[in-house]
Amino acid sequence: MPSRLLALLAAIALPFPLRALDLHVAADGDDAWSGKLARPNAARTDGPLASLEGARLAVRRLPRPLTEPVQVVFAAGTYRLAKTVAFDDADGGDPAHAIAYVAAPGADVVLSGGRELPAFQPGKGGRWELRTPAGTETFEQLWVGDRRATRARSHGQGYAFLRGMESESKAGGDRKTGETFRQKLRVDPRDLQGFAEVSETEARDAVVNFYHKWDNTRRRVETVDPTQGAFTVVGGATKPHNTLDHLTGFVIENLPTLLDEPGEWFLSRAGQLTYLPRPGETPAASRATYPVLGKLLTFQGAPGRPVAHLEFRDLKFRHAKGVETLATFEPNQAAVARVDGVITLEQATAIRFLGCELAHFGSYGFSLRRGTHDVTLERCLITDMGAGGVKVGSLNDEAKDEDVVRANRVHNCIIRDGGKLFPCAVGVWIGSAADNEVTHNEISDLFYSAVSVGWRWGYAPSRAKRNKVEWNHLHHLGQGLLSDMGGVYTLGPSEGTSVSHNHIHHVTCFSYGGWGLYTDEGSTGITMEGNLVHDTTDGGFHQHYGKENVIRNNILAFAEESQVERSRQEAHRSFVFERNLVVYDRGGLLGHEWRGTPENYLMRGNLYWDYSGRPVRFPPAGQASLEAWQRTGQDLGSVVADPLFVDAAKRDFRLRPGSPALALGFQPLAVEKMGVIGEAWRQVAATFERAPAAPRPAKPAAPALNLHQDFEGRIANPQYPFPAAHASLSRMNKPGLPPTPADGPSDALLLTGAQASAGKQSLLFRDAPGLPAAYFPMLTFAPNHRAGTSTVAFDLYLEPKAYLIHEWRTAGNPYATGPVLTIKDGRLTGVKGLDLVVPVKRWVRLEVVAELGPAAPKTWTLRLTPKGEATQEVKGLPYRSPQFDQLGWLGFISNANEATEFYLDELDIRCVEAKR
Questions:
Q1: What is the pLDDT of residues 147-192, one digit of tens each?
Q2: What is the DSSP secondary-structure string of 378-400?
Q3: Cα–Cα distances in angstroms (integers) from residue 606 to residues 590, 670, 717, in the given order
Q4: What are the tens digits of pLDDT across the range 738-785?
Q5: Residue 196 and residue 180: Cα distance in Å, rounded?
Q6: If DSSP codes are grouped into helix, strand and coil, which group holds residue 910?
Q7: pTM of the full predicted structure?
Q8: Which of 109, 178, 558, 780 is most buried, by the most CB atoms less than 10 A from its CB?
């Protein structure tokens, strides 16, 4: 840590109590001594204790009840923890006699769960090397000096994108023991060249970290084919709503061939550690430390017997694994279900961490679990986090009131530089917990949200109530890596919760969803007031769906896409949006869904201004004037006017005299009070350096789909944009199920053994009368064929009265239609010049071929081959729309309005690009 920062920290150390029983700990102490002396006596028969564990046991031996406070004073030094220090109810104090573990005045005290390695020796090619001592366990994290080193990885500090997931098949297990699936993934072959020069054993030690939407997934490589750009991994099934696709970023870790950037390291199975030093580092001054302990401290009480009345002041806790392995990690929002804190508290109360530092760990920092209340983290620095800073509460509601996590306080802390291993983590996560406060903190430099409150998807009751997220400075989030995040993100009913007086800025997503204030699924009863939000990618405020939220007196400024977004129309009132100042110079004003009346959402008394000089436009379709918008009952009392900020271009949002915002009743924001408090502590927050931001990656185009589907297993890569087809998705992947029971007519898409042109199964389209739409059931794909020769071939078995439409379209809406074929009553038509007989109740092969691209001919070819007969070919068929030139959407539709069926098998979708 920089010496200037150490001096600042020393200047703001908290004072000692005036009276206390002192015990002493020193690096030259002995846990067999009494601890009553600060230094060993001349005979070395007594003196200070030697460790935190020794001090805990010495305090435990004191007569109870205590008659005075107890203070354990640590002399300067680094204390290596031999094991996790575990406090229980017998280790605590009482309300009048707290027990404090503190650093001596001005002392730099480090409590480390790591082990220091021998000094590096210069090696070949500018690298340093050392042989780890016998008995050293394999480690996956390393710090050189006081900086985290990076395990050898691909793509420098960036990442590459998958081309897509080619297949997913069951690899083993069952629902009881846990099913595993094998995913085969395609990438640019150049991204796998690091495997070309390593042994099979080294290749199997490689780990891939995938970044997809709001999640990350870690997998060990199973097989790899560098020449074909393909590899396989094994783990849980991918989520349909967040799968591995062409928008998935990835890096490969832990191959010796990837050791090519300063600050990277590689540990061989033989214990040879190789490090590529950073500029300015020397072997003598740059000792390496690896983590040994999973956790540093635990506080475990019991119902009615909590761990209580303990303080920790001005201590530095460092080096912990946090997780047992980095080889695998199943995707989990915010990384809270499987990643715990390195300091955990359960059934604990009146515990305080004051002026402490927690750094260099592989998971979350603090975890406040069941039954924990009145715990305070104040003026603490939490940094270099594998995941996030603080977890507060449970994933699910506690059944008993006394087990609810409540009334805890994270105040005036600096929480920064997180998501190093689990980028989906958040700075402070509050789950099922009530009456907690997150105030006056600075939370920054994460890849996902700064604060997350609530853990309920939808409107079911939740114990997350009356939490306060106020007066914080939240910034530099997302950093272009993940998507769907907020400076403050909320979930579910959270009545009485306040997200107010926060300064939120520079929230940068990858593909979508970089919002400042984000009320996600079911967020209810939340007030967001007095916030300053600026420089986000997608909007200052976004509500997915929720109920009775109040968004009031905020400044929302300079988002790239839309300034305010709403995603779902609901019957109740979603929110009241009033007395806000919304300014921008690019993008639009109101994005997504703005149907409804003031009973569904209410806008009033706001100010809007576009610094680019464009007219400010409102729904519908972003074309209406304010006056037209107001005739719908929205934004009564609102104005379009320059708010007269002092200097909006320099992000000085103070109001000049005469601002029209004041006439609306807008209350100026006290931005200078947001963030950490205390001048010296503010200087500490300003001391940290931030690397220049990498440019936000461009979204790669979807790769061309080349697929063979024999319907013998899970369906690969279909999309289901309509409810009836989507309702059949789970049935499609489970052969032999009967039709869905329903009160009304039911369609179905079923894997079945009733018919098959090859193998044992095919895909059954079962139609019925009276469906919500004639085009149910439907199966669609997104082939993304842009140029070259595109071919779609499939086997078809028609029952009498079957009615099939097969159609090619460009992507998006409006779209252009290319090849179309319609089969009804045994006749194949669709476009001019096409009229063929198709036999029913027997298999036929159909093949549709078209040249794509702007210069390609606007015609296509059909080949029809009844099984065992000659092929009929029709060339020069016209496109339905002359504008068609790319295959972005492909559909198979059962268009009947009566009970009928047809079967699809041996589907091939291919594109052969033209040679240049």
A1: 999 999 999 889 999 998 988 888 999 888 889 999 999 999 999 9
A2: ES-EEEEESS-SEEESBSS--SS
A3: 13, 19, 45
A4: 344 344 457 788 889 999 999 999 999 999 998 888 898 999 998 999
A5: 28
A6: strand
A7: 0.88
A8: 109
